[in-house]
Write a structure and sequence with these properties.
Layout: H1 11-21, H2 30-43, E1 48-55, E2 60-68, E3 79-81, H3 87-94, E4 98-100, H4 102-105, E5 120-125, E6 133-138, H5 146-158, E7 177-181, E8 187-189, H6 191-196, H7 208-212, H8 220-227, E9 235-243, E10 251-260, E11 269-276, H9 285-298, H10 303-315, E12 322-329, E13 332-339, H11 349-352, E14 360-362, H12 367-375, E15 379-382, H13 389-392, E16 398-406, E17 409-418, H14 426-463, E18 474-481, E19 490-499, E20 503-514, H15 516-534, H16 539-552, E21 559-567, E22 572-578, E23 584-586, E24 592-594, E25 599-600, E26 614-617, E27 622-627, H17 629-632, H18 639-651, H19 658-667, E28 675-682, E29 690-696, H20 702-716, H21 725-741, E30 746-753, E31 756-763, H22 784-791, E32 794-800, E33 803-811
Parallel strand pairs: 22-25
Antiparallel strand pairs: 1-2, 1-6, 2-3, 4-5, 5-6, 7-8, 7-11, 9-10, 10-11, 12-13, 12-17, 13-14, 15-16, 16-17, 18-28, 19-20, 20-21, 21-22, 22-26, 23-24, 23-27, 27-28, 29-30, 30-31, 31-33, 32-33
Helix pairs in contact: 1-5, 2-5, 8-14, 9-10, 9-14, 10-14, 14-15, 15-16, 20-21, 21-22
Length: 814
């Protein structure tokens, strides 16, 4: 390295030199090597750093330690031939640095394995005399500038390649040593380890599962994060766990391990030691904390519940100044909770340099944190440790990072920071490690629960009507109230369906259960009922069709339903029930009645079910109340008592403010089940339309007969003859089209209200008339729909039972 005075060095280079000098421990220990490599991530802005050492037996340069982003992201290998053309081999042979940019790397053999091509690579020989080399990768667009190169050379000078132990070299295991083959799960252990687990050599079958089966179940998540670690990950592991004893409390053991890469034809191995840690513990205090945390997490249903449990279990007992819990989603950290929640309590960088107010950043934005997640064990940095600012300001007096393992991957991370220098006792690391496994499992479970709840809630919101339609001669309001017992959303639904001729259908229903399946089936049933009603079927046929559809869906769920079709002109209604509570009517004088409507079975139960219709008479001011059983039935009272209570509350309400009535009815509702409520106040139509209909005969002069019927009807209604011509022309064209292009019955219906005439022609063909895009002068047909469109204010088609209806509306002068 070129010598230069301190005055000529950059500030970062000086800080790197100080940080490297303060790293203690055995110079050849893997822990020290890893901490040295982490300085390359901090000061040289590298995203990956690794040490390769020569293997004389196989003539290779073999990876022994790494830090940062997994090497596979850059196509780097576990080993390189020493006489090859790789950057590591060139730096090893020439004993000089090799600096490569994206253009240089494009020609490398490993370029096709890189997930990111715009990277810079550096290979530097280490100075410890072993012949090893330092490999570093940067995603900085400017690569390794002069100051970054100075920092990398300082790291290369400080690296001391770790010494391979007897266990690593494959020699006979003794005492507390073990070696685990990552591909087969076979483990070799010393006699002392068998004594700690209470086994004899004859009783042990060589399977790691046999040892894991003797551990305390709460400690398994953190243990599994070690023994099922990614075989591409190199690094130290350390954690404490408990093994069950024949009598007395469990025994605490401490595992120290190191993952070694596999060679040619050899699997990766986890090697290390297991020792008795009982003498280092202070009794039952930390065990009680972990047990309390486990009990709290067992009942935590949401991610927020998990976060609050972690804050309560760790921040106060550890006297920490701040704690953050973040989920790992698609290589990004998404913060779930910050305690304290005030923005000023957290680093300014968290608010100014990342794309949202709180951290929602790639893991590689903080290489030290990425390294901790990669290694999968709790990391503790005391006061004064050189870290990137985003982490250093979280815990200037000490920082603990807990990777949260779950299901074979990392669910997230927990950051705990202190402002004043904090003395990390031996028990704290164990407490943090044991807590991490519990939290990771709970976080993943809660995240899945939240995702399902959000999905079901979204389905519920999307499948229910966003707003109710305005009705001629009536007002309708609806409310939906989810249950508080459990977070799954049920299948309660309601609907208000406007129908032709001032008819309206009121629907309320409930699908069995609380799940995504129930919400999905609810949407299917609501859509089906709306479609059958729009086809013009009577209420009993609509419900029968829905029953048949539910049976054909081959689901294990059933549904209840109440369907009320109201004629706004006549003030009459027909009610059909399918296993659902009956409507409650409030009359204008304040009296109430529970409609004695005969009911059929729930939908989806019987193939040949009958659904009888019951007539209802409405007066002006009558309120119809439809509800699901969540409002009228509880574990303490039956449905009859609930209906009586609903009727009483309706009787004392003021129906002039229907929304307030609905809110009052739900105000005292039990929350053990979902509740849907639909209210409609029938006010009557101020002006009733005039209606006439006629069946068109299929005779040569049918169009003339239709025009004559229309003229006579309009004259009877008081329409002046001089304004009839547009209506007569439209009737002639629509009737002619139906007779020429369809078979079967044709019907003409006329409706007049407030000088607005509706002409509707119904036929037996489902084909919708098509408006021609262009017509030549010689064409003899195709102009009928164009004439209707020109004369009418609006026109359209709707499907009806057995065919379609083509309609249009015209404004006639008064």
């Amino acid at each position: 390295m070129v010598s230069q005075g301190a005055a000529g060095r950059g500030a970062r280079t000086v800080r790197a030199e100080v940080a490297l000098k303060t790293i203690g421990t055995d110079p050849r220990s893997p822990e020290r090597t890893r901490r040295v490599l982490e300085q390359a991530l901090v000061f040289a802005r590298a995203s990956f750093a690794a040490v390769y050492t020569p293997d004389d037996r196989e003539r290779l340069l073999r990876l022994v330690e790494s830090a940062g982003v997994p090497r596979t992201a850059y196509g780097l290998r576990e080993s390189y031939p020493r006489d090859g053309h790789s950057p590591a081999a060139e730096a090893y042979r020439a004993r000089r640095p090799v600096w490569l940019g994206p253009e240089d790397l494009a020609d490398e053999a490993d370029a096709r394995r890189m997930t990111s091509r715009d990277v810079h690579l550096a290979a530097l020989p280490v100075a410890d005399g072993t012949g090893g080399c330092l490999l570093a990768v940067s995603e900085n667009p400017d690569g390794f500038g002069p100051e970054e190169r100075d920092c990398l050379e300082l790291v290369a000078e400080a690296v001391v390649c770790p010494v391979r132990t007897a266990v690593e070299q494959g020699e006979e295991l003794r005492g507390t040593a073990f070696a685990l083959a990552m591909d087969t799960g076979r483990v070799e252990v010393g006699d002392a380890i068998l004594d700690l687990f209470g086994l004899t050599r004859e009783e042990f079958d060589g399977r790691v599962e046999s040892l894991l089966g003797l551990t305390v179940p709460e400690d398994l998540p953190s243990l599994m994060s070690v023994v099922e670690a990614d075989h591409m990950t190199i690094g130290e592991r350390e954690l404490e766990f408990r093994v069950l004893q024949p009598t007395g409390p469990p025994r605490w053991l401490r595992l120290r391990g190191r993952l070694l890469p596999g060679g040619e034809g050899h699997p990766a191995r986890l090697v290390g030691t297991v020792a008795d840690a009982s003498s280092l513990r202070s009794g039952i205090t930390d065990v009680a904390r972990v047990q309390r945390l486990a009990a709290t997490l067992a009942t935590a249903g949401t991610v927020r519940d998990v976060s609050q449990a972690v804050v309560a279990a760790l921040r106060v007992p550890l006297r920490a100044d701040r704690i953050a819990l973040a989920e790992l989603e698609n290589e990004r950290l998404v913060v779930t909770v910050l305690d304290p929640p005030e923005a000023e309590a957290w680093p300014e960088l968290w608010q100014t340099e990342w794309r949202t107010e709180w951290p929602d950043a790639p893991v590689r934005a903080m290489p030290t944190l990425a390294a901790a997640l990669r290694e999968g064990r709790a990391q503790i940095w005391p006061a004064g440790t050189a870290l990137e600012p985003a982490l250093a300001e979280v815990g200037p007096g000490g920082l603990a990072v807990l990777p949260l393992p779950a299901g074979g991957r990392m669910a997230g991370a927990c950051l705990i920071g202190w402002d004043t220098p904090h003395d990390f006792g031996p028990d704290e690391r164990t407490l943090l490690t044991a807590s991490a496994g519990l939290v990771g499992q709970a976080l993943m479970r809660a995240h899945a629960f939240d995702a399902e709840h959000e999905l079901v809630g979204m389905l519920q919101r999307q499948l229910l009507p966003r707003r109710l339609p305005q009705l001629p001669g009536a007002v309708a309001v609806a409310r939906y109230l989810p249950a508080t017992a459990g977070l799954e959303v049920g299948g309660d639904w309601y609907d208000v369906i406007p129908l032709p001729d001032n008819q309206v259908a009121l629907v309320i229903g409930d699908v069995q259960g609380h799940s995504t399946a129930a919400a999905t089936l609810m949407g299917q049933m609501r859509t089906a009922l709306r479609a059958y009603a729009a086809e013009g079927h009577p209420p009993d046929v609509v419900v029968s069709h829905a029953n048949r559809l539910l049976l054909e869906l081959e689901t294990d769920l059933f549904a209840t339903c109440a369907y009320v079709q109201v004629d706004m002109e006549a003030g009459t209604a027909w009610c059909v029930r399918a296993g659902h509570p009956p409507p409650v009517l409030r009359h204008p004088d304040g009296s109430t009645e529970i409609a004695e409507a005969e009911g059929g079975p729930p939908l989806g139960v019987l193939t040949q079910a009958e659904f009888p219709m019951t007539p209802l008479r409405l007066q002006r001011g009558t309120v119809i109340a439809l509800t699901t059983d969540g409002l009228v039935e509880t574990a303490q009272s039956d449905i009859d008592t609930g209906l009586d209570r609903l009727a009483h509350e309706l009787s004392v309400s003021d129906p002039s403010h229907l929304g307030l009535v609905a809110d009052a009815l739900l105000g005292n509702a039990p929350r053990s089940d979902d509740v849907a409520l639909l209210l409609m106040r029938y006010d009557g139509m101020a002006v009733r339309p005039l209606r006439e209909g006629w069946t068109v005969w299929r005779v040569p002069e049918a169009a003339r007969h239709a025009r004559r019927f229309t003229r006579r009807t309009l004259l009877t209604w008081g329409v002046r003859p001089d304004v009839m011509d547009p209506a007569l022309l439209v009737v002639s064209e629509l009737v002619t089209n139906a007779l020429v292009h369809t078979d079967g019955r044709v019907r003409l219906d006329l409706t007049l209200i407030n000088h607005r005439l509706r002409v509707a022609v119904t036929d037996s063909s489902p084909r919708t008339p098509v408006k021609p895009t262009s017509l030549g002068w010689e064409a003899t047909g195709g102009r009928g729909i164009l004439l209707v469109e020109a004369m009418a204010e609006v026109w359209g088609t709707v499907p009806v039972s057995g065919g379609k209806q083509v309609w249009c509306e015209l404004q006639l002068a008064g």
